[in-house]
Amino acid sequence: MKFNISKIELFKSLSHLIGIVDKKNSLPILSNILIEAQSNNLLLSATDMDISIIEKLSCDVSEEGSTTVNAQILYDIIRKLEDDADVQIISNNGKLLTLRAGGSRFSLSCLDKEDFPIIDKNNDGINIKIESKILFKLIDKTKFAISNEETRYFLNGLYFNLTNQNDKTDLTLVGTDGHRLAKFNHQLKENIDQTIGVIIPKKTINEISKLLADTEHIIDITLSPSKITFLIGNLIFVSKLIDGTFPDYKRVIPPDNNNTLEVDRDKLLSAVDRVSTIANDKSPVIKFKLLKDIINLNTINTDNSTATEDLNFEYNGEELEIGFNSKYIMDIVNNLDDDKITLKLKDGSSPITAQEKSNTNLIYVLMPMRV
Asked: CB–CB of 327/228 below 8 Å?
């Protein structure tokens, strides 16, 4: 195997793959990437047995061949080269890989390509197309609510739900950790006469989000009950799905929150941030006291230190007191973009909703904490 490629192009591809490479070394081969040079194309593959990526690059191939090499070492070498470097890679017998760039030369040990897992790219599921920037936004506005609690494994990912009604197909993404919920839906351009709901693991969500932020392609997604495949330009991304039942998120969204509060997003965020300086892990609650056109924020921690702040906002609902985890309320406000946002409440013990007028398909739900 012998080929030449620019540092920038090779490094960009390695950056796509490095996030899924198995760092725990449960199997040495999973710490490697598979390099295949053929017909002036380079195929780079990585897998952790749950997620797999294959990316095709154009390059000058002098001799076809393939081998596997440690991903982290190769990534670090390429990262440290000059940006305008041309990289030559040679492997005569698949056991040793030689890399040359300028005055630098490296010899890296390889593992047998035959030991590298076969990546199954086939997926006979439902196919949809969506713009990368739209899918990125759907994921970006919901992924913060994914649970990290391993005992509730079915919450350790985003719910990816396709529904069809009146010849219109909606894609809905939902994340929840039991304390807060984020739901964002988008109507697809094409009508798909099928419905499916699956849970995409958090690691997959994080890795695909990085890829989407770096591209402007139409994304081809193929979805089956056990696997999801993304085609992003010359890159194929395959992931297993979480085998579980996602909660009925529609029941969590309150339909009768009649007390409406219009707030200045930045002012609310700054006030919560200031008051939460006193809050800590043992007492994270900030109490909201809603009076006519005034909100009082206050907290007290386990050391009896206190903080309070009054805000003048438009509010004509019932007077009530309600408490929230300060981090959770800040996460939600941070993920809304309008200057003015709307909070809807029922009483001091029921969940609230948060929305913005420019994006009514996005809704956040937050459970209160006892005060």
From this structure: no
Residue 84: other Cβ atoms inside 10 A = 9
Element spanning 183, H or E: strand 180-187
How far is it, in rounded angstroms, from Cα 72 to Cα 281?
36
Eight-state DSSP code of residue 272: H
CA 338, distance to chain mean position in Å, is 22
Question: What tens digit of pLDDT does each residue of 96-128 get?
Answer: 999 999 999 999 999 999 999 999 988 889 999
pLDDT score, position 371: 67
Sign for the pseudo-dihedral over CA of 305, 311, 315, 316: positive
Distance CA 308, CA 300 (A): 9
Alpha carbon 118 to its chain centroid, in Å, reads 26
User: Is residue 99 a contact partner of residue 133, using CB atoms and an 8 Å limit?
Assistant: no
* Secondary structure in 3-state letters for 48-61: CCCEEEEEEEECEE
- Strand, coil or helix: 66: strand
| pLDDT-flagged residues of the chain (< 50) | none
- CB atoms < 10 A from the CB of 333, how many? 20
